[in-house]
Amino acid sequence: MKFIDILYLLLSYTNADNVKTKQPHFKAVALLNCVGVFIYFLIPSFLAKAIYTLILLAVEFFFKETRGIIFSFIPIIIWVLLFSSAKDIPMDWRRPIDVDTLYNLENKLGLISFYFYKNENVFLDLLAWLPYGIVHYIMPVIVGIYLLLYYKPGFTSAYLFFFGTMNTLGVITQLCWPTAPPWYYKKYDTTPATYEMHGDPAGLQRIDDLFHINFYTTTFTGNPLPWGAWPSLHSGFAVYSALFLSYIYPKYCPLFFMYVAWIWWATMYLGHHYFVDLLGGFVYAGVCFLGAIVYLKIKKPYHKDYNELRAIMVYQSKCEHEVFEIISHKNNNTKLGTYLSDSVNKINNNNNNDNDNDNDNDPDNDDNNKITIITESNTKVEDGNSLISDTNVDNEINKRGSMTTQFHNNGPDLDKLGKISTINQTCLTDPPSSVTDIDITDAKII
Hints:
single chain, 446 residues, 19 helices, two-stranded parallel ribbon, PAP2/HPO, globular, disordered C terminus, two-stranded antiparallel ribbon, mainly alpha
């Protein structure tokens, strides 16, 4: 795969791949962002950083290449900026730190988090460190890349946009209601906290001691938002990803929520969150997940298998109530150089085998199964009892209003392919450069 293909793949979920300019402004955009981020970290004032960020985002919207990306990433950008700039907020703007409300709520629940917090050993330290200190930070990246590679752009856009929304709402809540985590109560009881105090690695200190490093100690003592116990965004990360993946793969739902249970235990064992914090993260994740589902219902993106099947169109004839399926660009020897997915080929092969069996049993039944395969070359493709030439394509389009293939009405795999209905005819008369350029977002479910 060429570099430009990879670049357009990364941009596809934001519709930035629809840019038609002959000279895309990729270099200008890259330079703008590199310089812009560098200048951001040189600005000392929180208010100045906020104004500068808004100006930079506004400039980004002038470039078609980044307009869609910025829109999808706006919540994530706001979240990162709010979090990293929390230490720069003027003291007069900051709320007093609440050190006892969460503990009192936890006490009513039986001090669940303290039960895990007091049982310590090296094995449990490592078992808790893995999800809390490693997987937590890479999980959203892995899910986002997976969706980008294997699903329609709308899935990636929905996941990232509402993931950022969840974190932005969480940080805003933490800024408006700063709360002390369990490690603070263990060290200082309910003594009033001040913003001069630093964060604490709590149980992760034992990981630093075990590996003779100072990573988590440095990271947590320099945390710009140490008073953000509620809601737990560790819980939010895990629950949101689990809900989203469960929506795509329902049968693996228990597996995804086993990870949620794992990281919930880890956060309490390491002393960073109360159980009520985890419930708060669950609520925030659930609300944002519902927003993502609404977005997907409106956008109606399909699995990337359907992206490969752009040339497959199923519609029901108003007069004869016959189902037609359209397959084009299937000849693997053409200059397209692309292949349908294994799952699609399997379905097609099953239908071809069924057609052969029907023809053997009833040799006179030639009209039950006819497949018209349109290729890019002038060759003829034989399927069953028919030979179709490319020269007949235009006549076929004019005759039926589209290219069609008639399958046996009782075909066993018809339902598997019969997921897509009318697609804009222009995409058939003006084929793209590759099968993966297909967009069937406007297809309707039968």
